[in-house]
Amino acid sequence: MKGAVFAGGRTVELREFADPTPGPGEVVLEIKASGMCGSDLKFYRAAPGETARNRGLPEGNPVIAGHEPCGVVVAVGPGVDPKLARVGQRAMVHHYRGCGVCPHCSTGWMQLCLDGVAEVYGITGHGAHAEYMKVPARTLVTLPDELSFETGAAISCGTGTAWGALKRLELAGDQTIAVFGQGPVGLSATQLASAMGARVIALDVSEERLARAKEFGADVLINPTKVDDPVAAIREATHGLGAHASLDASSSAEARRQAVQCVRTWGKACYVGEGGNVNLEVSPDMLRRQVTLIGSWTFSTIGQAECATFVADRGIDVDRLFTHRWTLAQAAEAYSLFDKQTSGKGVILF
Length: 350
Fold this sequence. Notes:
- Its cofactor is Zn(2+).
- Residues 9-348 form the Enoyl reductase (ER) domain.
- There is one protein chain.
- The protein is α/β, with parallel strands linked by helices.
- The chain folds into two domains: 2-157 and 299-349, Medium-chain alcohol dehydrogenases, catalytic domain (Quinone Oxidoreductase, Chain A, domain 1, Alpha-Beta Complex), CATH 3.90.180; 163-295, Rossmann fold.
- It has helices spanning 41-45, 50-55, 149-155, 158-169, 184-195, 207-215, 230-236, 253-261, 282-286, 301-314, 331-338; strands at 2-6, 12-16, 26-35, 69-76, 90-93, 96-97, 119-120, 132-136, 140-142, 176-180, 199-203, 220-222, 243-248, 263-271, 292-295, 322-326, 345-349.
- The strands form four sheets. Strands 3, 4, 5, 8, 9, 16 and 17 form a seven-stranded mixed β-sheet that branches.
- Helix 4 packs across helix 5 and helix 4 packs across helix 10.
- The longest helix has 14 residues, at 301-314.
- The chain is globular and about 60 Å long.
């Protein structure tokens, strides 16, 4: 089979790989949809020769990209519990492999494995930008019949990450949340928070992304480059009190600071954007306002399933996140466009 590989220097190559065969406890998924995630761009942009080092892999060990997998089980290895996987099952993949038995793995948080994450699919282990993908059966999450494979791919990372953060924030329908950054994760947070009944203030420096946020349920739009003080603008929109909660999906140091400052006394701020730093005045920004700061790293298998059920039960059109649909043969073109970070979300379909 062919698989898409980040070859370094903003290049994507299609390379030949053997069709996978499931071992004990494993399954093979025929991929139907494989989403493109902003975190892929770190490896896409890496200079030639740095790609493997960034992943902790030896040179000459290409890894199939893509960590938002969704498809159908086509082969089951020995010892797989039929309650976990069966041929013909529509499934998403929790895109981490841990030991499977530690306190975190056993509760669905394999990315927090006490032995260290053995593989992150699409980064240190073969991902979903290929026709087939082999994974442990315990990483499968059933895709409800009401949902498309594209929606399943989104929930497998970006939309699921937004869901995990909103649950960490304990967002309620009578609250206002400020969402910083309206890329795929931020836009998912806007869509889900709106469906939960919350009032959403969406912030982004792109007018195109703000327009999409309005379509996805945002009640107030703020472009930080066009107001004197985004925090003051949020307070003005919340009767001078500030938002009940905030979520930063931008990874911008300034946005992260504002996400803490914009919440009211007893408010909560959550960071989901990877990397970078933030500078805060601890006393005025946090201590003397009883502000809670939360870090949220993706989601558990249980959370992934709960997100899918929520989306299915409420008929949320997650497919609208995708502005571009590609074939595997178009992977290089797809990432070249995605690299500009001005469009919406892309997905590779099979």
